[in-house]
Design brief:
The protein is an alpha+beta fold. It is built from 11 helices and 17 strands.
Amino acid sequence: MTNYSLGIEDFDKFYDLYLYSFNRKDSEQKRNALLTRYKHSLVYGIMNGNKLGSGLLSIPFTVNFHGVTYHMNGVGDVMSAPEFAGQGGAGKLINTAMEDMYNNNVTLSYLAPFSFKFYRQFGYEHVFDHVIMGIPSNEWTHIKPPKSGHVERVSLSEVPVSARKLYNNHNSLGGVIRDDWWWDHMAYKHSDWFAALYYEDDDSLSGYLFYSKEGPILKIHEWLTKDPDSYRALANFITKHQSTFEQFVYESDDSEVKSDLLDEPKIADVRTVPYMSARIVNLKSFVMKYPFIKYNLDPIVIDVKDSLKWNNGRWKLSISKGKVKFEKTQDSCNIQISIETLTKAMFGTRQLDSLAHYGAVQGDAMSIDSLSHALVVEKPQLRDYF
């Protein structure tokens, strides 16, 4: 097997291709931010003469999926030089990265696709959405702050450890469990962002929001509250900016539209945007730890179509008193499905019976319905980008 691994000595070549491929201007901040990701990643590349022709990062993370922890590698900075494009370089690197993930007991992979269609050929499927809501600042709903507690404003680099803990305590729908290095990377990369922190009277942190000032727009990037007081305090904090900004824009990882909470829902410009894709790298590992919502499930044989040989084929799934069995079989199948569609269903992005209605799943209706009602129903959420 060809070795496409790159080392720290190859960073300058990787950085040069990064600047050219993404049309970025060189800066100390960009260089240092990429170097941090580079040092924490498995790095892949194909040389084209004395230059790097294609490259990508495979960044090890863990994610919390309904209380289950999975190893996940985030694939990022996938790039090819224009003179090397069309030669399959990126595809070779993605397939090599996935094989290494499997050998390293990594169950899942996420990435931000430039084209969902392109990455579907490698088994990645769109599962995460964001909702972007824009509101004229003078139309922002007035909410009275709580009589207790207080708000502090700091830079992102000054966000306390308690905010990191608060995030992890409220991250359970497939989001990244952020290590300290990733928090530090976020703060460095977004050095122009601010954080508003709500403390209760006992000085315990119960809410925060991360935001930036972009001309006439105040943009909210992350907003986490654990109770009504923390929500009201931070909503009121935004109100205090009405004379400074023309518009408030909030990009939420929660795909549920909440314009009904506004005084006048019609004044909000709301759109749902596709965000990132996921890939089941090790199907057996994913299923054996999966948080099924049924305690018992009669055996169902699922014929899974996947380019990864270890996932491809017929699998028999059953659950007895909460104990999951999932093994390869030669029995006749009840359901035929691609790995992409199965990923979407198991992540809760769209229910299996809905996917069957649109022709994405084949099989007998009873088996499809039974399996559909065993899978999680809450849509996944992902704040991070890589």
